[in-house]
Amino acid sequence: MVDMQAFRHEVALRAAGGPGGPAGELAARLGVRTAVLLEGASDLAAVEALAVRRGRDLAAEGVCVVSMGGAMSVGRYAGLLGPTGLGLRLAGLCDERERPFFDRGLARAGAPRADVFVCVADLEEELIRALGTAKVEAIIEAEGDLRAWQTFVRQPAQHGRPAHGRLRRFLGTKKGRKIRYGRLLVEALDDGQVPDPLDGLLASL
Asked: Contact 67/40 with Cβ under 8 angstroms?
């Protein structure tokens, strides 16, 4: 049984310079029509969580959400998947500081940039701002991370940093935490709280 994960795996191998696999064949068998280029796995978790909340099955709709492992990889992924590669429509989500990488990578691949949505700092910051710091701290407590959070905020480097900045930094201090909270924060949003970049991306697919 071919699934979207197999397609992602083949694309990642080719983007890393590995031997060409059956990515085109897999895309055809799966009916892939759109690739969503994301910087990292936490962004992927958030996008997929919002899709589930809204009753959408992106894979069944022919949408492959790809974690590139960093914005500097966008040129390789756009070349493989876009007009000069497999011919898929491209969409994406990035941070403002990483936007030049997306602009250059998509331009080289001959892909339009209209469907790339931009976060001010990053998606975690957008989600924290949307929920409010008190709600995010309540989620941290419910997840059993309160002691780790309290230890973190007592560190001298965190003194004087705004609460949302401390929360954003905390989510990145342990491997896998950003991914887990990417999903949890999206699940905690009210319908009217979804950050514009994330909302716009899903609506475009």
From this structure: yes
